[in-house]
Amino acid sequence: MKHWEGKKVVVTRDDEYSSRLYGTIQYWDESKNRLILQPGAINVLLNDILYIKELEQLPQELESSAAELNHIGYVMKLPVQFDNAILFGSQVMIWQGDRLVELQAKIIKHDHQQVFLGNGRILRKSDYRFIVRSLRGC
After folding, report:
1. How far is it, in rounded angstroms, from Cα 105 to Cα 118?
2. Contact 9, 25 (CB under 8 A)
3. How far apart, in whole angstroms, are the C-alpha atoms of residue 81 and residue 30?
4. Is pTM beyond 0.90 here?
5. Which one-letter DSSP state was computed for residue 47?
6. How far is the C-alpha of 112 from the C-alpha of 63, rounded, in Å?
7. Three-state SS for 63?
8. Virtual CA dihedral for 83, 117, 128, 64, nearest 10 degrees?
9. pLDDT tens digits, residue range 88-119?
């Protein structure tokens, strides 16, 4: 599987939506049964992959929107980013415009339109920005 490292790809996930992730495979982590996709250091479990197709070039609009860098962390936009926040129990900041709604929220589940928080709140993805903290510079 190491021959995939550094390749631009589209990963089709084995979920009910056959969602697609575009990016460059940073590395395969065989010990944890996952691959790391850039930009955004997205963890994709190998069991969740339906298939992978190599691309000559990433779509420009998708490359820039996959994981928008914020001075605190990454703005979550893709389903796998929400999945990873749940899996790793990440603390997520939630903003509505320029107003901080939640400083350290925990996401317990999500679908295409909504996010369900540990405190019982349900928020629409289109109305809020969800920022997961990153460990850059450590």
Report:
1. 7
2. yes
3. 20
4. no
5. G
6. 20
7. helix
8. -10
9. 888 899 999 888 899 889 999 999 899 999 99
